[in-house]
Amino acid sequence: MKNKSLALLLLAGLTGCSQSSTSPEASASAAGKSETLYVNSRLVDCVGVAPMKCMQVRQAPDAEWELFYTQIEGFAFTPGYRYKLLVNVSELENVPADASSLRYVLVKQLEKTKA
């Protein structure tokens, strides 16, 4: 009886320690929403926590460019090209005050054109 109790306790403990095998893209897709972002061809100076370079993005082809202070997971920016991207956006919990509360994950690069 003692061995059975110990085995059950160990099994329960190991089950609680298992890791999920879902990728960041899959978890963002399940929890977030899809958006199309247009990315400008160059990085510009901006100030977040400290001076840095930011992408300029917009959500429609004719909208004004806005500074984008965070990264898009899975996206590698190349200066000199404009991009149209499909991204998943999900909310993050318990983020520091100086960090974005949104997580952006690249789903698909729809267009890449020379500027």
Automatic annotation (TrEMBL):
Annotated signal sequence range = 1-20
Q: Which UniProt keywords apply?
A: Signal
Answer yes or no on keyword Signal: yes
- Domain DUF4377 span(s) in chain numbering: 38-112
Q: Which InterPro entries match?
A: DUF4377
- Which positions, given as ranges, span the membrane? none
Record bears the keyword Translocase: no
Name of the protein this chain belongs to: DUF4377 domain-containing protein
Which species is the source of this protein? Serratia rubidaea (Serratia marinorubra)
Lineage of this protein's species? Bacteria, Pseudomonadati, Pseudomonadota, Gammaproteobacteria, Enterobacterales
